[in-house]
Amino acid sequence: MSPDDPRHGTIAGCSAHLRTKTPACDACKRAKMRYEKQRLLAGGATKVAAHGTRRRIQALRALGYSLRELAEVGGWGSAHAAFKYPLIANTITAETARRVLKVYNRLSMTPASGPRVGRNLRLARRNGWAPPLAWEGIDMDDPTAEPWRPDSRRRVGRPDVVHARVEDFDWLVSQGESEEQAAVRLGVRLDTLRDQRRRLDGQAVA
User: Fold this and answer.
1) Is a pLDDT exceeding 50 seen at residue 153?
2) How far apart are CA 69 and CA 113, in angstroms?
3) Element (H or E) spanning 119, and its range?
């Protein structure tokens, strides 16, 4: 396709890339992603890209859930292999994507509880899995999207970001969350939040 082809950014353009065996441009990739998502929601797709589903599973793992717990909520019983496959596959069935989406919508604002949560959280941190709030306002099905990360070099230490996160933390605690649960939901270490709050309190006194 030529750079000025009007089909850029459309599903027709994506098909043209395939026919001409040229790499798809970013605009056509996004068009294909939107098309697949619409088909998924409408029930017309049979296979979809796995990255959005993988991110949703990883985000729930970052809240402390095990694969077994997610499988049970999703109606798979204890057959948690159904949740393992999207973590390694490039494509999955649309039915799996829809079921994982339902689980995500149900649990994404509820941190896990139980004796194994600590181990699950450590696993998520080691793997760099972002929690749901880090994806807030970001399309998880966009392959080029990135979650907000508190340790990002572009944002770490920025006063507006620190202040907003501490405000969110205090609000969650005021609504009945424990400090540990609030930190999990924000995807920030509890000791980091406490240090940031102390610094802000010190600035207010000064």
Assistant:
1) no
2) 11
3) helix 117-127
